[in-house]
Request: fold
Amino acid sequence: MTATCVILDIGGVLEITPETGWVQRWEERLELPLGTVHERMRDVWRAGSVGSISEREVHEQVAAHLGLDTPQVEAFMADLWAEYLGTPNEELIEYVRGLQGRCRLGILSNSFVGARERESALYHFDELVEQIVYSHEIGIEKPDLRAFEAVCAGLEVQPENCLFVDDAAANVEAAQAAGMHAHLFRDNTGAIARIASHLEAGPLTPARVLLG
Reply:
């Protein structure tokens, strides 16, 4: 329980995920006012992020809310996943791979139903870290403190020995509130330097706690 640990986000950290404009293109194609897709699909997106809906049901809801036939639904979802998955942040992934055996490694990600299968197939994150905690599998999203508690419990580490790296300030603040160290991801150089300093400091052992 005194092991040093590094936990990372996926989208915007391990994946580079710029907006592709796919939603606006579909709204133009369907002659819908700007913002209509997210307005109609808001509850479905929410359900998918906490795993209260299956992929099949997502497809059914897309068809029902947007009036799409089966080929259109498949094309719509392909566009969604293309933006969601982005491209791999190769430099950071390689750095994290080099940490295997030096510390505990985990991922904590706000996700969508179907993400594990796709990210494992494309990027092999399941081979990069010891445990991946997805919001759609535990039914809890960051910045809920229970999400951070879940990943620490799964890795059997104390939060004070963990560094959490995320590109959202609210999630970084929540990790700190949960007792973890945290770094707001801006670029690979800063993240790698922060991880290195965390590993150099080592775990906070009971003796160090007592001695301050």
Notes: The mean pLDDT is 95.
